[in-house]
């Protein structure tokens, strides 16, 4: 199947599939005229990557997971360790987001939201402590 069909079957955009090929996560075959040719195995790997990325695993985690998936002699403890590390990062991020939410809730509550120019939200942004956490939209 071609890249469009593989994209539809795996749930990934063609652009993402090209990127995964570029960084070596997948290696589709090429047909006689140089077009990518995806078989069932490649589509399965793409769906695997889609699911792993959907769960928030980084590209390097996905590389490791694919390596473990391909290794018939793998130890499940290796997979569990990688997943447990990821879970710990999720828990840490949840704690960061909860702290961020508490700060924002306090600021919103402190703002009168009326016609006066004074605003505790802007005051805090201008003079409050620097944040050291990552942006909530950052994906690795």
TrEMBL record:
<dbReference type="GO" id="GO:0005737">
    <property type="term" value="C:cytoplasm"/>
</dbReference>
<keyword id="KW-0238">DNA-binding</keyword>
<dbReference type="InterPro" id="IPR011789">
    <property type="entry name" value="CueR"/>
</dbReference>
<dbReference type="GO" id="GO:0045893">
    <property type="term" value="P:positive regulation of DNA-templated transcription"/>
</dbReference>
<protein>
    <submittedName>
        <fullName>Cu(I)-responsive transcriptional regulator</fullName>
    </submittedName>
</protein>
<dbReference type="GO" id="GO:0003700">
    <property type="term" value="F:DNA-binding transcription factor activity"/>
</dbReference>
<dbReference type="InterPro" id="IPR009061">
    <property type="entry name" value="DNA-bd_dom_put_sf"/>
</dbReference>
<dbReference type="InterPro" id="IPR047057">
    <property type="entry name" value="MerR_fam"/>
</dbReference>
<dbReference type="InterPro" id="IPR000551">
    <property type="entry name" value="MerR-type_HTH_dom"/>
</dbReference>
<keyword id="KW-0963">Cytoplasm</keyword>
<dbReference type="Pfam" id="PF09278">
    <property type="entry name" value="MerR-DNA-bind"/>
</dbReference>
<keyword id="KW-0805">Transcription regulation</keyword>
<dbReference type="GO" id="GO:0003677">
    <property type="term" value="F:DNA binding"/>
</dbReference>
<dbReference type="GO" id="GO:0005507">
    <property type="term" value="F:copper ion binding"/>
</dbReference>
<keyword id="KW-0804">Transcription</keyword>
<feature type="domain" description="HTH merR-type">
    <location>
        <begin position="1"/>
        <end position="68"/>
    </location>
</feature>
<dbReference type="Pfam" id="PF00376">
    <property type="entry name" value="MerR"/>
</dbReference>
<dbReference type="InterPro" id="IPR015358">
    <property type="entry name" value="Tscrpt_reg_MerR_DNA-bd"/>
</dbReference>
């Amino acid at each position: 199947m071609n890249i469009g069909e593989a994209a539809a079957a795996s749930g990934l955009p063609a652009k993402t599939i090209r990127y995964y090929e570029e960084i070596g996560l997948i290696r589709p075959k090429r047909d006689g005229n140089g077009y990518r040719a995806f078989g069932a195995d490649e589509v399965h790997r793409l769906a695997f990557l889609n699911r792993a990325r959907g769960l928030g695993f980084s590209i390097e985690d996905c590389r490791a997971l694919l390596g473990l998936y391909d290794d018939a002699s793998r130890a499940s403890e290796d997979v569990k360790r990688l997943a447990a590390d990821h879970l710990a990062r999720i828990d840490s991020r949840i704690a960061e987001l909860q702290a961020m939410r508490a700060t924002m809730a306090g600021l919103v509550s402190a703002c009168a939201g009326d016609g006066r120019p004074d605003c505790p939200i802007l005051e805090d942004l201008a003079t409050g402590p620097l944040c050291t956490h990552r942006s909530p939209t950052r994906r690795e």
